[in-house]
Structure formats: C-alpha cells, structure tokens
Amino acid sequence: MGKEGKYGAFFLALALFLPFLALETDRRMTVALPVDGPAEVEQEQETKFIALTFDDGPRRSTTGPLLDGLAQRGVPATFFLIGEQVPGNEDIVRRMEAEGHQIGIHTYDHKCLTALNAADFSAQVDRSRQLLGEILGRENFLLRPPYGMVDAGVERRAGSAIILWSIDPEDWDDKNAERITRHIVSRAKDGDIILLHDIYSTSVEAALAVVDALHEEGFLFVTVEELAAQRHVELCDGQVYRSFYP
Ligand code: NI
Fold first, then answer.
1. C-alpha 17 – ligand 1 centre gap (Å)
2. 169 Cα to the center of ligand 1, angstroms
3. If you ran DSSP here, which 8-state letter would residue 104 be given?
4. Predicted TM-score (pTM) of this structure
C-alpha cells in the first residue's frame, strides 16, 4: 500500500467511525433527558389535600380491617360514629384516636335530625357526645347529620361545625368496589371531602384502592380538621362545610 493508500484507509475508517460517535452522543442525550424530566416535574407539583370520611360505624368486622389498611398506608381518616354502636367497640374508638384519626358523631341511632324538638335532638346528639366523652375524656366532636339533612334547628343546636361532603359515590347502593373507586378517583380534587360507610367490606376495599390511586396522583390524605386548617378556615358551631377548596 502507498502513502496515499494509507491516508485513504485512514479517512475511510474515520468516515465509517464518525456516525457511530455521533450516534453514541445522541443516545446519551436522549437517555439523559427523560431521567431528569419527571423528577423535576414531581418537585414542582403542589400537594393536593383530601379527606376520607366514614359514616355509620363502628362495625368490628369491617372497621377493623379498614384501620389495618389505613395504618399500613399511614393515612388518617375521619369517622362519624353511631352512638348505639359504641358500647362493646370502645377498643376500636380508642384505636382510632391513638392512630391519628378524627372522631365525630352521626347521632345515637341514625335519626334524621330535622324537625326534632330539643329533647329528642339532645337524645341523639348530646347523648352520643357524652358516650364518646366517657371513653376519650373530651366532648368536642364534629357532627354529621344523617342523610346530610340540615335545617335551622340543627344549625342552632349542633354544638359543633356540621360536616357534609363533596364526593358521594353512594357506596350503599350497588356495593361494587370497582365502581366506587372509579367514581371517587375520577372526581377527586384538592380540598374534597369523600363520603363512604365503613360498614361494608366493599367500601373498605374501595377506600384503600382510592388511597393507593390518589397517592400516585400526589394527594395527601388528612382529617377534616386538618383540611380546614390547611385552608385557614376556622370551624364554627352550626355552620355547614362541604369541602375546603383552595
Ligand atoms: Ni349515615
């Protein structure tokens, strides 16, 4: 091979090799981008707050597994209890308090509170507060009236804030965990209050699936009181709250 032949071979080799160098550089660049991308997006994402609430309990067979599932996920919830279901379930009430859940009342035996006289109202609401007070040593429990029914009398006598809800999948209707989960996850917004009933195993299943799905979307679960505090809302006696949107 002559001198020109050697150079020719060198340039030929270079010409063949260059595209690989370029390709290697491109590949590293395209790999580097997606790695940095999502991490930055995650940091910029604002935390969204949401409250899970459960009515009509406690019921040992379903509330127990729910508390286990919430504890595994480090998630607090708010429970509106039925007074007459508390005797015999005092350990569950203490466990709720010990594990960071909020406890509220939902009347003594699930009576509609509208149009009640003072004595009947007291037998539903004050009696439930006293019952929980004997276990927990305080009586400042939020009120959720059955069926969300509120009138001027309920507002006047409530003795606490009245907490309703902004998402209701009607979990008592078909008891279909998958549909209930979809209903909630597709509607969930920052500041929502979700209504479920911890007396159905399908609702327990749905609640835990909702927690897992909304954690993926950057939601943080808090109690009703924490949600109000997050939005700098002072809860007033007799006032109705359905959500705490930003
Ligand atoms: Ni109820």
1. 74
2. 14
3. E
4. 0.82
